[in-house]
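User: Can you help me understand a structure? I only have the sequence.
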Amino acid sequence: MRAAVYRNHGPAADVLSVEDLDPPAPGPGEVRVRVVVSAVNPTDWKSRAAPAEMTGFQVPNQDGAGVVDAVGDGVDQGRVGERVWVYLAAWQRPYGTAAEYTVVPAERAVPLPPGVSFDLGASMGVPAMTAHRCLFADGPVAGRTVLVAGGAGAVGHFAIQLARAAGATVISTVSGPEKAELASAAGAHHVVNYRQPDAAEWIRAVAPGGVDRIVELALASNLTLDLAVAAPGAVIVTYASEATEPTLPVRELMTRNLVLRFILLYYVPVTALRQAADDITAALANGTLTELPAHRFGLADIAAAHDAVEAGATGKVLVDI
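Assistant: Let's start by predicting it. Here is the structure, written out as tokens:
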């Protein structure tokens, strides 16, 4: 099979190549997926670029979509031919989705509902499951007000849609008009430019009692705004890190009984991952989740695809396999 591979960590152009590998065979409890579309997330380039020793090779990319073409012992043979979306394909495993075939535990290849495109299926995984955990780790959001920072990004896009479908009033912050259009198209009830000096006043105008849950991607940069708009007992959930560490006003957090939750999808409990996969698949089936603007690359241009995500491309970077 043709596969993107790296054997050392470093810049995409220096370490990524496309090679011929033997297709992996599914072991017990596993399925093999013929990949149609692979998606690139920030975690993919960060894992590749991280300074660390390697043994063997790594096919990058956690997320993708395709068709089950073989199953291992203990897996229903009826799954062969099933259209699926795939998550965490490269987590502690050598065969990510940037290849013609990947092998994953059977539960990480989730049936793709009829009529849902491979592009949308490949876009689930890291962003949609992260959004789900951010929203629901601390209980239902029905009747609550949710603030989604960065509503034009992939996690923000799906957080807006999942929160709205769950009965929340959704406010999103963005950095400018183009991204405001994306957040509005995703379904945010209110969109605020966080660069405006009166951003907190705008948010408080639509949520006088404060917001109940904040889905945050830049805690250090946005903590002042978050604290200005958080309701008593609110939960601030952060899923990304910055070069600058936040300074926490502990007494204020205590006095207001605020909760800070930190999420890294790789270490989310398996039961929560399963619930997220079930809920996301149901949301795909009923049309709740929609595609982001796509930037398409061929497998031969895998380094450029990684560089596009590293450069902060708005929308979804997809690799056609």
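Now, to help you interpret it: The two ends are 11 Å apart (CA to CA). The domain at 127-266 is CATH 3.40.50.720 (Rossmann fold). Let me know which part you'd like to focus on.
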